[in-house]
Every structure is written in structure tokens, then in C-alpha cells.
Design a protein that fits this description.
Elements (H helix, E strand, L loop, with lengths): L3 E7 L2 E6 H50 L6 E5 L2 E5 L7 H24 L18 H16 L7 H14 L1 H25 L3 H26 L21 H10 L4 E5 L5 E6 H11 L5 H4 L6 E3 L4 H10 L5 E4 L5 E5 L1 H13 L19
Parallel strand pairs: 2-3, 7-8
Antiparallel strand pairs: 1-2, 3-4, 5-6, 8-9
Helix pairs in contact: 1-2, 1-3, 2-3, 2-4, 4-5, 5-6, 6-10, 7-8
């Protein structure tokens, strides 16, 4: 995720902190300092750090359960409104998704019960999370119960939205269940935003995040469903400017100015892809190291490849799982045949939606309904 810093690794998963989280801590410190002095400020920051430790534990509930089903978990990012564990894929099996989604809130239940039973925490109607007069243990137990309730809201990306999709998916199928869960998530987002107008402005921020996440989830699932059985040739770019590893960045700059491409495959003498150079790579290298820098020093060698006869759904999976900017499509002998990016897939989808119902892209042909005589 952009604008985030890697602060370490736990059990093979990177822990990243988003800049919004750091700004949130600064705001908490400043607000507490203004109202109660330095002691109150540091106490508030300590409490928030403990809360986000519980959030990390919550996310690792998802992570370890996902790994049990063979789903890799590259990183977890702390945001101002919580944590987001990135799974390389979401299982389409309703039972697996249900267990992964419910594992996070169960961790918070265990923490809350542990604090109540072992540490003697008291949780009641008078336990205010922002009340410095309430003991730290009491507030920590209360916040874990709040995390359970908050995450059970039936809206993406909260766990409740995924639990709802899993329950609906067992009867309606993954795609239809996603459509319904996303619609409910959008309605919830509007409700949160409306409430936020008259109470807490933070709810407006959360509402925007929920709405965008629900829309993105529905779009991605629809795209994956549409791409099943479609060859990669339906969405790949074939008229490409390529670069060689031994060329200089100055040549890459000229190629960039002469084309509308944002990603440039780097191929060897045999025409086989060995890396990818993006517009951002070119500009950064030109600025930091100068025009004589070899392309090989600036390119990313982590370029996923896929056979020319494979399905587009596999390319989408690679784009998502590897967080790759492009997938190189190769011929049987390994030579570059084309390039697939999120933009090229999006353009294909827009064209597909703009065509008449009887016209399909890729492996489909134009068909006309036969009329009876």
C-alpha cells in the first residue's frame, strides 16, 4: 500500500504503518496534551499503541487461518481506522472465507475475556474509551469488544461483509453474493456518512473508505467472473515499445516521450522478457543516477509471465497476488507476445459493456438471434 513504511516482519508477514496512522498518533498526542498535559498525552499514546497491538493480533487471526487454506499473506498495514491484512487471494469457497473472516473478531473476544478473567477488567456502560479516569485494562477490554462489534458491520472491507458474502455464497454463488454484500456495504456507508454529519466527522472518513472498498470488491469479482475462459489475447497489448537491458535510461526517456505507454517490457537478444521498466522508474532513475544508467539497473526483474494460450483469469490472479504492474504474455519458446496491465483489462471491460449484447470480445464471435419463420 502506498504511503506506508515497513517497520518489521512477524511470522513472514511484513508489518507496515500508513502515514495516516502516524498522523493519527500525533493528533491524539496533541489533543491530550492540550487538555491534560504531558502525562495525559503519553498515556493516550500508550493506550492507542496497545489498541493497535490488539488490531495486529486481530489481523494475524485472519492471516494464520488463511495460511491453513494455502493463502499467502505478504503484509498487514496499520491505518488510522484499523488494520488491513493483504491476502494474495480471497477463497471462493464460502466455508473457507467464513472461517478466515470470523477468525479476526474471535481473537478480540479471546483478548477481552483474558483481560476480564486474568487481569480483572470491568466492562460496563460507564466504560468510556476516552476517559482517562477509567483504568487502562478496563478500557482495553472494552475496546476489544468494540472491535468485535465494529468489524461485524455487514460491509466490505469489514469482516461482517465477508461473513455475509460467505453465508450468501453458499446458496447464491460467489459473484451474486458479492453483488448483494457490496450493495449492503454501500448502503451502510451512506448511513455512516449521514450520521457523521451530525456527530463524529471520523464517521464520514470511514464511510468513504467503506464505500470505495465495497465498490472495488464488486468490480474485481465481476471482472474475474467475466474473464474465466477468456484467452489472454483478448486483453493483451501487442504493439509495444520494448527496451534492452544494456540500453541507457536516456534511450528509455526518448521511448517514453514517443509513446503513450506507462510500462516497458525489457527483453534480451532472444526477445524473451527479463524485466519491466515503468514511467516512475525512468523518472526516478534519471533524477537520482543520471541518463547513462543502464536499464538493467533500473528495471524490476520480478515480472510474472503467462503462456499465450492461458486464460485471462490467470493473468488477473497474477496481477492481484503478486501486486504486479503487468504480466508478460509469452509464446511457447519464451518470446514476448504481449503485455497485460490493469488498464488494458479495464479498457477491454469498458468495450465489452459498450458493445451490443450480441457482440463479445476475445474468443467469442458476433451472433445474431435466429428469427422464427
Amino acid at each position: 500500500m502506498g504511503w506506508s513504511l515497513n517497520i518489521g516482519r512477524i511470522a513472514g508477514t511484513e508489518i507496515r504503518v500508513h502515514i495516516t496512522f502516524l498522523l493519527f498518533l500525533i493528533w491524539i498526542f496533541a489533543a491530550s496534551y492540550a487538555s491534560g498535559g504531558a502525562d495525559a498525552a503519553w498515556s493516550s499514546v500508550l493506550f492507542m499503541l496497545l489498541v493497535f497491538t490488539c488490531v495486529i493480533a486481530h489481523e494475524f487471526g485472519h492471516i494464520f487461518t488463511a495460511r491453513a487454506f494455502g493463502v499467502q499473506t505478504p503484509d498487514v498495514t496499520l491505518l488510522a481506522i484499523g488494520g488491513v491484512a493483504r491476502l494474495e487471494r480471497i477463497p471462493e469457497d464460502p466455508g473457507q472465507e467464513f472461517l478466515i473472516a470470523v477468525a479476526g473478531p474471535l481473537v478480540n473476544v479471546v483478548i477481552a475475556v483474558g483481560l476480564i478473567v486474568i487481569a480483572g477488567a470491568h466492562v460496563g456502560s460507564g466504560t468510556a474509551l476516552d476517559n482517562g479516569n477509567v483504568s487502562l485494562v478496563d478500557r482495553l477490554a472494552a475496546v476489544n469488544l468494540f472491535l468485535v462489534l465494529f468489524n461485524m458491520i455487514p460491509a466490505f472491507p469489514m469482516d461482517g461483509g465477508r461473513i455475509l458474502r460467505a453465508l450468501l455464497g453458499a446458496r447464491l454463488g460467489f459473484v451474486r453474493a458479492t453483488e448483494i454484500a457490496a450493495l449492503i456495504g454501500q448502503v451502510v456507508a451512506f448511513a455512516l456518512g449521514f450520521i457523521g454529519l451530525f456527530s463524529n466527522p471520523m464517521l464520514i472518513f470511514i464511510a468513504i473508505f467503506v464505500y470505495l472498498a465495497a465498490t472495488s470488491e464488486a468490480h474485481m469479482v465481476a471482472l474475474r467472473a467475466m474473464s474465466r475462459g477468456v484467452p489472454v489475447s483478448a486483453a493483451m497489448m501487442t504493439r509495444l515499445a520494448t527496451l534492452r537491458p544494456d540500453e541507457q535510461i536516456e534511450q528509455a526517456v526518448q521511448t517514453l516521450l514517443q509513446t503513450s505507454q506507462g510500462e516497458f517490457p525489457v527483453v534480451n537478444d532472444a526477445g524473451k522478457p527479463v524485466g519491466l521498466l515503468t514511467r516512475a522508474d525512468i523518472i526516478r532513475t534519471m533524477k537520482d543516477f543520471g541518463p547513462s544508467t543502464p536499464v538493467a539497473s533500473a528495471m524490476s526483474s520480478d515480472l510474472p509471465t503467462l503462456g499465450a494460450r492461458r486464460c485471462l483469469s490467470e493473468a488477473l490472479t497474477l496481477l492481484q497476488e503478486k501486486t504486479a504492474q503487468a504480466v508478460a504474455v509469452v509464446e511457447p519458446d519464451g518470446r514476448l507476445a504481449g503485455l497485460i496491465t490493469s488498464e488494458s483489462v479495464g479498457e477491454m471491460l469498458m468495450l465489452q459493456n459498450a458493445r451490443p449484447d450480441s457482440f463479445h470480445l476475445g474468443p467469442w464471435s458476433r451472433t445474431r438471434a435466429s428469427s422464427s419463420h
